[in-house]
Amino acid sequence: MGVSFLIKLIGALLAYKIWDCRWRGQKQSIKTTVSCEAMASGLPLLLLVLCSLTAAEAWLRLYNLRARGLDADTFSAADGYVKVFCGSAKLGETSVNHNNANPWWTEEFSHFKAQENGVLRLEVHDEDIFYDDLLGVCQCQIKVGTHEHNCFLKEGGTLHYMYTFSM
Fold it and tell me: Which stretches make up the C2 domain (predicted)?
C-alpha cells in the first residue's frame, strides 16, 4: 500500500466522520454541533500535513554523463546515446552524439519515486541506420548522497556519471 493511498483513505474517513458528526448533531444538541464545527475547522490543517507527507518522497537526480573510447562501427566513429532506467521506470534517453568516441551529454534526469537500494541502470548505445548496437550496461545500487561512478562497457570504453539521491 502506497503512502498516497493511505493519505486518501485517512482523508475520506475524516470527511465521513465530520459528516456523521454534523448529521447526528442535527438530531442531538447544540453542544454536539459545536464540537463538530471544531473538528471541521482543523481539517484543512490536517490535510495539509498529510499532503506534505507525499512530497517527502525520495528524489534521484542523474547528471554529468560522459563516455571515453566508445567502440563503434568499422566505417565511422560512435553515434552514442544513453538510455536511463530507475527500477522498472524508463527515465528517458540522451540525445545522440554523432561521430564522437568521447561524448559528453548535457541532459539531466530526475525521478521522484526512487528507492534506496533500488537499481539505477544506464544502457550505452551506438545509433545505426537499421539497428542500434548496445555497447554496454552500467548498474548501481542507489544510495543516499552524491556519488560519482565510472563503468567499463562490454564493447569497449567507459561511461562516467554522477547522481544525487535524497530522502
Answer: 40-161
